Amino acid sequence: MAASSSPLPRWAPTPSPSRPLWRWGGGTPDARNGTGTGTGAGGTDWSLGRLFPWQRRPVVAGFDGVEVAPTTAPAPTQRADTNAVDDPGVFLTWEDVCVTVAAGAYGGEPVSILRGISGHAGPGEVLAIMGPSGCGKTTLLDTLAGRLGPGVNETGLILINGRREKLAFGTSAYVTQDNVLMSTMSVREAVYYSAQLQLPGTMPAAEKRAHADGVIREMGLGDAMDTRIGGRMTKGISGGQRKRLTICVEMLTRPRLLFLDEPTSGLDSAASYHVMSHIARVAAREGMTVVAAVHQPSGDVFDLFHNLCLLSHGRTVFFGAASEANQFFTQSGFPCPQLRNPSDHFLRTINKDFDEEIVESSKARRKTAAEAIDILTDAYQSPAYSEKTTNRIAEMKQIGGAPFRKREQASFSTKLFVLTRRSFVNMHRDIGYYWMRLGIYLGIGICLGTIFYQVGHSYSSIQSRCEVIMYTTALLTFMAIGGFPSFVEDVKVFRRERLSGHYGVAEFVISNTLSATPYLAVIAVIPGAMLYYLTGLTKGTDHFVYFVINLCMCTLLVESMMMIIAVIVPDFLMGIIVGAGVQGVMMLNGGFFRLPKELPKPVWKYPCYYISFHKYAVQGFYKNEFIGQTFPSDQLVEKNVTISGLQVLQEKLQVEMGYSKWVNIAILCGMMVVYRMMFFAIVKIAEEVRTKRRGMKWKWCK
């Protein structure tokens, strides 16, 4: 009866009657059906039990909590995990971290985002980074994860187990604030494909699927398994489900260090609690270190945090055990009113964006938020609080231990197969990728074929054939920008998965080429065949095959060029403008609107004419169309005289005849390969520059 009369919801954690629920060295609720992997009491792994001393009570109705044992946690150096050498826990420390943004174009002063932030996080703990909007939560998270972008300067000392170390694949994971997912995939497919990329190649496929299903259900997505994620074209799962799916993908490998940026954004209070409690259970059970930037947690979610880092305008207001924060505010003169969520009280007190409102204080006069921040910051710098953080950092820096080893991944061939298959499915389902272009091509093919229907072999047909060829080349290549928004989404997914170490640039480039080629062949063959026979171009299977191959190479080449633009200009609206401009300039130098010998030599002929792919595509089409043909001459100039196709190519069109039309195809293929390699080089160089830049900062900090 007591349980039924409780005002708490049925899923609320039941606190221990003897000790607070969360303490240093305490635990988190374990899974209802979960057991340890060892042979200790209750099925709990004996080595983790020494590190995280809690006792599980029997699962009974109305209980979803943890009874904390009255013992104290051992020092980190006493960890007795038998796998510590192979897979040690992560003790993360940072001291005096400062982050500034370079001045803008008008020569202003650098903007300081973080100012002397220090803190720590250890295995089995959930550290919450809280503060008002714009206080530097995400910046601190990016700094600790090594993901700061260009133009951002960082100083300070960040150590893992007492040394500078770049975490190998599978050791750390980062759940970004933006849910970057493939909109055409279902929840099940998104997690399955990610599992095949991340989990070891030696693991059977059935085990990977079972593991993926388990992770999906743990995040409460069992009912949405077969629902499409959805995006700009179609409706799919909700925003909260997207967030949980993003967490699912990153937790497949059970990383030792997990960064979460706004994990509860878009979730209702019940979903927020279930997601964070599951993460806390996994952290405690497997010794995972969790660092989460949280915006506005509910009271139940706040109780799940072991430690709290409270920021305001780049300064530390409080760092320590979450259970001590209320006492800290009370002693500083800002007690939390009864029945108010402590996190709400903390954020209201230190938010000076609305400084005309005064905050509550136990002192005689009420203070503004700016004054409250100064008081709290000064109080935290006192030895009673700041020395605890300093001493704990010093203890963690003595941890040492073996370096982290890279976990086993799928092989190169497996990744290539999985990425190709996923990309092929995505292109098939995304109507904006190729199907809409195919419809446009078919419509314009009918229009062009009927306008130039059976051009014949008169003298005027020479110009008509050239116009058909040039318009076809320009249209099929120019319309490639229509699929740019879809490709930009793919690049965003690639960036996220690349930063997480799921696969490399080579796998992405090759898989994208393999998956796109069949679709490009379809949109070249079907409209090309309709256009070719309606206009009455040169008959013959060999001529038609060359025509289609040339069209395919042009579309592949333009897709490769748009890949480079997408990685340089990630905004799809700006990318479309840039792509259209680049193609427009190349089109002008293609040798149709202005004959090659009439082009101004500086810039336009050297080098623009020779780097324009339209030159090689159009000249290949010309050779395929005119070689072996004869046409009557202009009857107004000379009657009863014929001219050969060779004369048309050399004299009227100024085509370079020193090589075969198949050489033009080879040149286009080579340009396509060069563009793909440029994309590969740009991504790799950007990564190397970021790594070297960070290394120089670390060296300077020493």
Short description:
The chain is of the alpha/beta class and 702 residues long. The chain contains 22 helices and 17 strands.
Explain how this protein is built.
There is one protein chain. This protein is α/β, with parallel strands linked by helices and 702 residues long. The chain contains 22 helices and 17 strands. The strands form six sheets. A six-stranded mixed β-sheet has the order 7-8-9-5-10-11, sandwiched between helices. Strands 4-3-6 form a three-stranded antiparallel β-sheet, with helices on both faces. Strands 1-2 form a two-stranded antiparallel ribbon. A hairpin with a 2-residue loop joins β10 and β11. α12 packs across α16, α17 packs antiparallel against α20 and α17 packs parallel to α22. It starts with 45 loop residues before the first helix and ends with a helix.
Keyphrases for this structure?
6-stranded mixed beta sheet, disordered C terminus, 702 residues, 48% helix, 3-stranded antiparallel beta sheet, single chain, alpha/beta
Strand and helix layout:
Layout: H1 46-51, E1 54-55, E2 67-68, E3 92-101, E4 111-121, E5 126-130, H2 137-145, E6 152-160, E7 172-175, H3 187-198, H4 205-218, H5 239-250, E8 257-261, H6 269-286, E9 289-293, H7 299-302, E10 307-312, E11 315-321, H8 322-331, H9 342-350, E12 358-359, E13 367-368, H10 369-380, H11 383-397, H12 412-429, H13 431-451, H14 460-478, H15 484-499, H16 505-535, H17 541-568, H18 572-588, E14 602-603, E15 606-607, H19 608-611, H20 613-626, E16 630-632, E17 642-644, H21 645-652, H22 661-701
Parallel strand pairs: 5-9, 5-10, 7-8, 8-9, 14-15
Antiparallel strand pairs: 1-2, 3-4, 3-6, 10-11, 12-13, 16-17
